[in-house]
From TrEMBL, chains A, B, C, D:
Its EC number is 2.7.1.92. Keywords: ATP-binding, Kinase, Nucleotide-binding, Transferase. It comes from the Bacteria. GO terms for molecular function: 5-dehydro-2-deoxygluconokinase activity; ATP binding. InterPro entries: Carboh/pur_kinase_PfkB_CS, DKG_kinase_firmi, Myo_inos_IolC, Myo_inos_IolC-like_sf, PfkB_Carbo_kinase, PfkB_dom, Ribokinase-like. This is 5-dehydro-2-deoxygluconokinase. Belongs to the carbohydrate kinase PfkB family. CDD domains: KdgK. GO terms for biological process: inositol catabolic process. Catalyzes the phosphorylation of 5-dehydro-2-deoxy-D-gluconate (2-deoxy-5-keto-D-gluconate or DKG) to 6-phospho-5-dehydro-2-deoxy-D-gluconate (DKGP). Residues 14-316 form the Carbohydrate kinase PfkB domain. It comes from Thermoactinomyces mirandus.
Amino acid sequence: MVNLNFKTDRPLDLIAVGRLAVDLNTEQINCPMEETRSFTKYVGGSPANIAIGAAQLGLKCGFIGKVSDDQMGRFIVRFLEEKKMDTSGVVVDKTGAVTGLAFTEIKSPNDCSILMYRDNVADLKLETSEVSEDYIKKTRALLISGTALAASPSREAVFLALEYARKHDAVVFFDLDYRPYTWTSDKETAIYYNLAAEKCDVIIGTREEFDMMEQFEKEKKTDRETAGKWFGHHAEIVVIKHGSKGSITYTKDGHSYTGGIFRTKVLKTFGAGDSYASAFIYGLMNGWEISRAMEYGSASAAIVISRHSCSEAMPTKAELDKFVKTAERIDT
Amino acid sequence: MVNLNFKTDRPLDLIAVGRLAVDLNTEQINCPMEETRSFTKYVGGSPANIAIGAAQLGLKCGFIGKVSDDQMGRFIVRFLEEKKMDTSGVVVDKTGAVTGLAFTEIKSPNDCSILMYRDNVADLKLETSEVSEDYIKKTRALLISGTALAASPSREAVFLALEYARKHDAVVFFDLDYRPYTWTSDKETAIYYNLAAEKCDVIIGTREEFDMMEQFEKEKKTDRETAGKWFGHHAEIVVIKHGSKGSITYTKDGHSYTGGIFRTKVLKTFGAGDSYASAFIYGLMNGWEISRAMEYGSASAAIVISRHSCSEAMPTKAELDKFVKTAERIDT
Amino acid sequence: MVNLNFKTDRPLDLIAVGRLAVDLNTEQINCPMEETRSFTKYVGGSPANIAIGAAQLGLKCGFIGKVSDDQMGRFIVRFLEEKKMDTSGVVVDKTGAVTGLAFTEIKSPNDCSILMYRDNVADLKLETSEVSEDYIKKTRALLISGTALAASPSREAVFLALEYARKHDAVVFFDLDYRPYTWTSDKETAIYYNLAAEKCDVIIGTREEFDMMEQFEKEKKTDRETAGKWFGHHAEIVVIKHGSKGSITYTKDGHSYTGGIFRTKVLKTFGAGDSYASAFIYGLMNGWEISRAMEYGSASAAIVISRHSCSEAMPTKAELDKFVKTAERIDT
Amino acid sequence: MVNLNFKTDRPLDLIAVGRLAVDLNTEQINCPMEETRSFTKYVGGSPANIAIGAAQLGLKCGFIGKVSDDQMGRFIVRFLEEKKMDTSGVVVDKTGAVTGLAFTEIKSPNDCSILMYRDNVADLKLETSEVSEDYIKKTRALLISGTALAASPSREAVFLALEYARKHDAVVFFDLDYRPYTWTSDKETAIYYNLAAEKCDVIIGTREEFDMMEQFEKEKKTDRETAGKWFGHHAEIVVIKHGSKGSITYTKDGHSYTGGIFRTKVLKTFGAGDSYASAFIYGLMNGWEISRAMEYGSASAAIVISRHSCSEAMPTKAELDKFVKTAERIDT
C-alpha cells in the first residue's frame, strides 16, 4: 500500500524544479552527426519533459527554473504556456547565460548519442531568492531532478525548495537524472545526491545511479538494501530501473513490484525515463496501485521512444489509455 | 542531564576538521595597522585552536585538514605535533595553495580587527578522498567548524566526515564559526549550515549565527525555539552565545543553563570563542554537568583574552583549575 | 600602386588563423527565432569563410586553428578538406571545449541577427605551441582576424603567428572582425587590436571598428588620418568600410580608391564582409589594381548575401567573373 | 654616447608603473622560516623600490598603481608620501583585492628565498581607465616593470601607459623583473615581454630574462646579438646582467661597457637589482656617462644588500657619494 499523503486543497498538483533546455533533434536519422545537415528545435530537459508529460495527462503543473534572456528562453516559456503550465516561477536570467542545448545523433535506434552545450547555462543560475515559499505552498507535490544539484547557485535553490516542500507537506519526487558531464567529480555528486535524497518521499533512478550514490560504502548493496537505506530517512517509495530488464519498485511496508514493458517501434531511446516518470507520477497522484502506475509509465515510454521528440511526443490521457488497452506486453 | 553517548574504546577523543591557518599578531598594541611595524607568527584557525586547547587539557586530539606545501604549512604541522596531536589526517596541498593568514590589529582592547588573506587557501582544498572512514572510526567525537563549509571541495569533505561520524557513532560538535568574508552569499551560507547542523549532536554559536541560519523563516525565533528546532533533528545540546551578556545552553530534555563570566584583564578579544569551546568540550567528554563545563569554558576564555596569541595561549588543566578556584566571577 | 611584396616560391598562398565555427542557419525566413523550427548546419567563422572563399577562387589556402573533439569539430575539418584546403595546421582540442555556434535569425532581409554560443569554445584555446614557424614559412600571406585576439591563449598564438610572418616576409592581412560579445572591455579590445595592427600590411575594417581602436585619442580621426596612422607603422593598404555607402581604400603612396556595390536580391546580410575580403585578397595576390580587386570583392559580397549560407555560398572564379560582367552597378 | 632625449620642462622626472606591495622581512636571520617567529613590514615591489630609490636620490617621482582598500594599502601610500613622491596616480581598489606579500627567509646570506602571496592582488587590477594621459605628459621618463604585464587588466594598462609615453616623448625604461610564479606560461610571458620591449628606450634585465624572451628563436643569441635585436626596434641602451659576474651595457652606437662591483657585507641578496636600477637611472637622467651611471648602480646595490629592507634601505645621494669614494672595488 502506498503511504503518500497528497494534500487535496491546493491549486497545483506538481511543481518541477530545475533544467529547462532545448533539444536540437537531428532530421537525418541513421546517420552520424558529421553528415547530418539539419536539426529541429524542441523544449527539453528532464524535469521539463516530466512536467510537460504530466500536464499533457491533465495534472496542473508549475515550474521553478531559469531561462536565458533570448529567443531560446522565450521559446521555452511559450511552449510551457501552450501546454497550460503555470510559468510564474520561471525567471529570466540577466547575466548573459545561454540555454543549454542537446544535439541528438541517431546512428541507429540503439546507437543514439547527445552532444551537449552546458557552459554558462541559465538553468544552473537559479538562485535561492528566486524560490518562493508561497509558490511551493500551493502545490501537492514537488519534483526535483539531480542535474539541478550540479552547481551553485542552482544547488542551493533546490535545497531551499526541498526545505519549503517538507515544511508545507508537499510530497517530494526525486528523479535522479545523473549526467556526469555536468559535474566536477563523482564524489561531489554523491555527497549532494545523498543530502537531497534524505529529504525525499519517492526516489526514482537506475541501478547505476544508486551505485554512484553508494560509492562511500564499503560493500555493494542489493536493490532491497538500497531501498531500505532510504526508508530509514523519509522515502516511502524507491524505484530502481534496470534498463531493458525492466524496473522494480519498493515500498516502505516491505513490498516490491516488478514492471514490464510494451512492444513498440523504437526510433530512438531518448525520453524513455522522462515519459515513464510523468505517467508513473500521474498514477500515484491519482491514488492508483503501484503496479498500475508502473504500467502506465511503461506505456508512456513505449510511445515516446517511437516518436521524434521528447517533450512534444508526450501522450495525452486518451492516447495512453488506448495504448495500454491495445499494445502488446513483453516479458522481461 | 546530558545524553551524549561517547564511546569508550577508541584511541582518539576528538578529531577536528577544517581550517589550519596562521595568525600574524601585531607586536604594537593600541595602534592602527598602518603604523604597526612587526608581527608575531602563531598557528590559528578556529578548529585548530579548539583542538589545540583540548589537547592542552589532556584530550587525545587528531585533525583532518590541508596545509600549504611551504614553510607556513610545515610550521603548522610542527606546532600540532609539539602539542602531542595526531597529524596523520593532515594532508599537504600540491596545487600551489597558500596558508590562510590573519593579521591582527589591536587599536584598543575593545577595538580589535583582523585583516584576512583567504584567497586560494589550502584549508578549503581538502577533498573527500582525503577523509578517511577508518580514521574517523577511531575517535569518540568529531568537531566541525562552519568555515570549512564555505567552498568546494572542503564543503563536501566535511559532509563526508559527518556521514562517517554518524555511521560510527562519534558524537559531533558543530562550532558555527561564521566568517562572512569566506562566503559568496548569506543564503548559500544558511543552506549548508542547516544541512550540516541537522546531523550534529552539539551546536555552539552566537545568536547572530543562529539568526543567519534562520533567514528563510518568516518569523524570528526565540533562543528556546531555535534550540527546539535542532532537537527535532539530532541535537542533544544547543549553546547560544550572547557576547558579553554570557551564554545559555539548552538540552533536549528541556533544561537550560546560564553561564557567567570571569573578571580578567583583556588584551584583545580574539580567541574567546575557541578557548570556551575547547574547555566546554573537555568538560562534556569527561561527563561533567553542563554548568560545570560552561564555567570551565568561561575560565579558559578569560585566560586567553588576556594573552597575546590564541593557540599558544591555551591553558593547561593545572592553570585552568587554579584560575577557576581563584578568579572573580562577574554577574552578567 | 600597390607595394605588397608577395614571395613567389611558396607552396601556400594564404594561411588564415583564428575562428573555425558552425553556423546554424534558420530554415524559416522572415520569422522570429521563437517561432522557427529548424536550422541547417554550415561551417562558419570569419577567417574560415575568407579562407574558404579564397580557396574557392583558386588560392592554395591553409589554416591555423583549433576545433572541438566531437562531431562538430570533425564536420568542420571535413568541409575544409572538401574545399581542398590544407588542414595540417588545425589541431583538435583535448580539454572538452565546444565548437562556437551562431544561430541566425532572419526577420526580414534587413533585420537579421545572430544568437551566439561562445562559452568555452575551442577556437580561443589555440596555443602558441600549436603555431608552427615552419608552416608559416610556407605561405605567401597570413590572414588574422580580430576575434582570435579576444582571449588567451589564442591571443598569444596570433601574436606569435604575426612574429613568424614578419620574420619570414609573409604579407599580413588583418580583417578587424570586431565582435563585442567575445571581449571583456572595449579598452582591452583596443589595446590588442592596436598592438596587432602595428605589425600588419593590409588592414580591413569598418569605420566603427577603426573608431574603437582610436578610443584613447583625444580627437576623432578622418579616414585619411586613420590610414595615415597605420602607414606610420607597417601598413601599405588600409580599407575603411562604410556599410551600404561603400568602402574606401587608402594606399601608403597617398592614393585612395572608392568602391561601389552591385544590385542583388538580398536574402540576409551575413557574410558580406567575409566574401568581400576573400575576393579582394584574391585580386591583390594576383597583382591586380586596387580598383579591380575592390570590385571583385563587391561582386562576391553581392552573390553571398543572396544565398542561404556564408561558407557554402562562396562563388567560384567562373561564377564571379560572370557576375562582374553581367550584374548592375549601383551608385553609392 | 648616450642618445636619450629627456625633455626638460616637465614637473616630474620619473613615473613608475606597476607593483606596490608589502615585504614581511624575517627578524630572525640565518634560520628557516618554519622556525622564525616575527616579521617586519616594509613597502616592496620592484618598481616601487626603484622609484623610492630614485626619489631618495632627489628625482621627482610619481607612480601609477593600485593598492588594496585596507591597512596595507594605506601603509604603502603613506610611505610613498613620506618619501616625497607624487601619489596622485595611485588608485584604491574597490573589489576586495589584497596587497601582495613577500615573506622573506634568510637561511644564510647566500641562501635567501621569498614566500609570495600573489592571489587576488590589487596591483594587477590596475585598469586602462586609471592610466591618465595628462599625468604621463608631465614626466620626463616612465619606468615599467615586467610583473605588471602578468595579467589583465594591469597588462593592458601598461601597454596604454607605453602608448602615451611614446606619444609624448617620455623616455621609457623597462626593468624586466620576471617572476615566474605570477605568470601562467613562459610562452605567454615571452609574447608580452617582447611586445612591450619593442616600445622601450632602455631595457634592463638578466641574461636569463633575455633568454626567456628569445624562446621562439631557433638559435641562442649572444649578448651583443640580443642588444642588436632591440636596437632594431626603439632601444638605445640594453643592460644585460650576469649575477655576481657583473653586468654589461650596450648602446645603439655600437659601444659596450662592463660594470664592476663593490666589496660589501652581504646580509641578503634581495633588493640588489632594484637599487642598481634606481641609481643607474638617476645617473642617466643627469646626463652621466654610462660607466659612471653603472658604478653608481653597483654602489647602491652594495649598500642595500647589507641592510635589512629594500625600500627603506635605499641610500641618499650623500650616502652613495661617500660610499663610491671610500668603498673597495672588486674585480669580476
